[in-house]
Amino acid sequence: MTLYGILLAAGEGSRFGATPKLLAHCGERQLLRHSLDRLEALLPDRVSVVLGARADALLPAIGATPHTVNRHWHHGLSASIQSGLSVVPADATAVLIALGDQPAITYSDFERLVDTHRRTGLAVCASFADTLSVPAIIPKRFFSDLQALRGDVGARGLLQQWQSRGELVAMPMPAAALDVDTPADLNHINTLIHQYADVS
Question: Where do the domains of the chain lie?
Fold first, then answer.
């Protein structure tokens, strides 16, 4: 298994206000660094960040991590997924897609996804409240499905299709429900973030 990580951080985050939300602090770290640090600990030298609307502002925050800039970020989430896939090496057998605004996802959560994919060979995703979501591990055989996505949609519809065909494992992960769109969201998560501390 050769797994690569794609961290999506291309959105404008307009609901958060003028300040780039991924640079706001959640606990002791910038929001972006929560997922990035954990992915890089799990997949050393096999993580790429997809930047877009706020690329110049976010570049210092990602340091030396490889990145690509989605010039078509305004076309929606599908364009960012495809931008990330475009830089995944040919030897990849699967990708782990994660978002930059889910700070409660822990290293252990990512590790459980990887372990399940390794055991089953299937797609694996987070689930909460009857919802399928990222982070998700998607095998190479499904890359063409991701490439066919259009508009401001992620992979949720595809996750549902794969599940219905028995090709996906849904892993309970309540932390995936905690994402940041507004300052109020960030304030709420900051009251809880100590619950999601781990080795990374």
Answer: 3-196
Q: What is the DSSP string of 34-47?
A: HHHHHHHHHSTT-E
**pTM over cut 0.90:** yes
3-196 has CATH 3.90.550.10 classification? yes
Residue 17 burial by CB count (10 A; 0-12/13-18/19+): exposed, middle or buried? exposed
Query: Can you give the pLDDT of all 200 residues of the chain as single tens digits?
Result: 899 999 999 998 888 988 899 999 998 899 999 999 999 999 999 999 999 999 999 999 999 999 999 999 988 889 999 999 999 999 999 999 999 999 999 999 999 999 999 999 999 999 999 999 999 999 999 999 999 988 776 788 899 999 999 999 999 999 999 999 999 999 999 998 777 776 44
The structure tokens listed for 53 are 């609307």
Q: How many CB atoms lie within 10 A of CB 13?
A: 23
DSSP secondary structure letters along 70-135: -TTGGG-HHHHHHHHHTTS-TT-SEEEEEETT-TT--HHHHHHHHHHHHHH-SEEEEEETTEEEEE
What phi and psi values does residue 123 have, to the nearest 5 degrees?
Answer: -65, 150
Beta carbons of 138 and 123 less than 8 angstroms apart: yes
Instruction: Evaluate whether 142 touches 164 at the Cβ level (below 8 Å).
Output: no
Contact by Cβ (8 Å): 50, 122:
no
Contact 73, 143 (CB under 8 A): no
